[in-house]
């Protein structure tokens, strides 16, 4: 199996090293792994591409490349500059922190998977939820390392080979617990944390200039029962199948009377 790997935390992120080990197990002894990751952290850039300006691209080791751009840029570079032919699979992550619920809309990890799907390649985004039970572990990614290989193989086997329209990609979130405490896997829709969102916090530099930090909300707030963050906080891995179709299908008939 040929696998392309990227992330949004950057080429030096510990979660990327975890994913490279997972991918090597999935690919097998005859497989081929290529990593194309951002040179610097790109968290929160979603599906951004650097359409209006070029970006630096360089090889830093065998089958390892960096891009001074977004995760989606990395996917484009990997598919059209590095690889000879399409890979069988694109893996993005393992992200430092969850991409459940509304986080999915901001996530560069998901942005890479979206671009992979738009390019016709099965793509899976993987994120490690952090919380009181795993944040202080010697290896906070141990649950991802223990469970993702088999899960990826099951997702690949279950995905239809032929898909009309927008292609599937997957948002996988590993719960904020130790590996031994993971209860299982749930296939669930994306949720929404009630009352949780991003906000700004103002700070001032020593020379009096004003700056704003973007701050996130409480990640330990569950979503509705049976949705992603709710099952994550209950100790389950969430798998959410997604497509890059933003249409509110439930409103098409409802809005019919306004058509002229």
From TrEMBL:
<keyword id="KW-0378">Hydrolase</keyword>
<dbReference type="GO" id="GO:0046872">
    <property type="term" value="F:metal ion binding"/>
</dbReference>
<dbReference type="InterPro" id="IPR002828">
    <property type="entry name" value="SurE-like_Pase/nucleotidase"/>
</dbReference>
<dbReference type="GO" id="GO:0008254">
    <property type="term" value="F:3'-nucleotidase activity"/>
</dbReference>
<dbReference type="Pfam" id="PF01975">
    <property type="entry name" value="SurE"/>
</dbReference>
<dbReference type="GO" id="GO:0008253">
    <property type="term" value="F:5'-nucleotidase activity"/>
</dbReference>
<comment type="function">
    <text>Nucleotidase that shows phosphatase activity on nucleoside 5'-monophosphates.</text>
</comment>
<dbReference type="GO" id="GO:0000166">
    <property type="term" value="F:nucleotide binding"/>
</dbReference>
<dbReference type="InterPro" id="IPR036523">
    <property type="entry name" value="SurE-like_sf"/>
</dbReference>
<feature type="binding site">
    <location>
        <position position="43"/>
    </location>
    <ligand>
        <name>a divalent metal cation</name>
    </ligand>
</feature>
<feature type="binding site">
    <location>
        <position position="8"/>
    </location>
    <ligand>
        <name>a divalent metal cation</name>
    </ligand>
</feature>
<dbReference type="InterPro" id="IPR030048">
    <property type="entry name" value="SurE"/>
</dbReference>
<dbReference type="GO" id="GO:0004309">
    <property type="term" value="F:exopolyphosphatase activity"/>
</dbReference>
<feature type="binding site">
    <location>
        <position position="9"/>
    </location>
    <ligand>
        <name>a divalent metal cation</name>
    </ligand>
</feature>
<keyword id="KW-0963">Cytoplasm</keyword>
<keyword id="KW-0547">Nucleotide-binding</keyword>
<protein>
    <recommendedName>
        <fullName>5'-nucleotidase SurE</fullName>
        <ecNumber>3.1.3.5</ecNumber>
    </recommendedName>
</protein>
<feature type="binding site">
    <location>
        <position position="95"/>
    </location>
    <ligand>
        <name>a divalent metal cation</name>
    </ligand>
</feature>
<feature type="domain" description="Survival protein SurE-like phosphatase/nucleotidase">
    <location>
        <begin position="3"/>
        <end position="192"/>
    </location>
</feature>
<keyword id="KW-0479">Metal-binding</keyword>
<dbReference type="GO" id="GO:0005737">
    <property type="term" value="C:cytoplasm"/>
</dbReference>
<comment type="similarity">
    <text>Belongs to the SurE nucleotidase family.</text>
</comment>
